[in-house]
Structures are given as structure tokens and as C-alpha cells.
Backbone:
């Protein structure tokens, strides 16, 4: 299983892409969880400020959730508008 990060400026479009990817994975008998950063920020971002270090910490927390899902045989599709996500390891599909 994998964690799929979708990052960009338009959260609505990213969510739509995440839903399409999720539907395809479900057709392939995979378990998926769509995680939208803006929806989980209040809980996972508790105690963090708007600094580069805290943004990185938040990204690590999202990745940790993805890893937990992975261990439970589920794909995590994470949607994020945060620029700090773009600096992480990338796989570009053309």
C-alpha cells in the first residue's frame, strides 16, 4: 500500500482528483482513505504555528497517519494546499 500526496493551489480540484483516484483503487479491491488537510488541521495541527518548522511537523503528522493506514492495508490519499508538501519526495506521472 502507498500514501498518495496531491498538492496544489485549488483544493476543490485536488479533492475531485483524489476521489477519482480513490474510486479507481476501490474498483481494484483496495481500501482507501481520502484525507483533506483543511479538514484535519484543527486536530493534527493543534499546538502548531504558521512557521516553516511547524508546517514540516504537520506534514510529518499527515505522513504518520498515512503510514498507519498503510500498515492496515489502506491507501491514504492526502490533499494539501500547503507549499511545504511540495518539497517532499516526488513522483511525477506524465
Residues:
Amino acid at each position: 500500500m502507498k500514501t498518495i500526496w496531491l498538492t496544489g493551489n485549488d483544493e476543490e480540484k485536488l479533492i475531485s482528483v483524489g476521489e477519482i483516484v480513490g474510486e479507481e483503487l476501490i474498483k481494484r479491491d483496495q481500501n482507501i482513505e481520502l484525507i483533506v488537510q483543511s479538514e484535519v488541521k484543527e486536530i493534527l495541527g493543534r499546538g502548531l504555528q504558521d512557521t516553516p518548522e511547524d508546517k514540516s511537523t504537520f506534514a510529518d503528522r499527515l505522513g504518520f497517519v498515512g503510514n498507519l493506514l498503510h500498515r492496515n492495508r489502506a491507501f491514504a490519499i492526502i490533499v494539501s494546499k500547503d507549499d511545504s508538501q511540495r518539497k517532499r519526495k516526488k513522483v511525477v506521472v506524465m
User: Anything to note?
Assistant: The two ends are 21 Å apart (CA to CA).
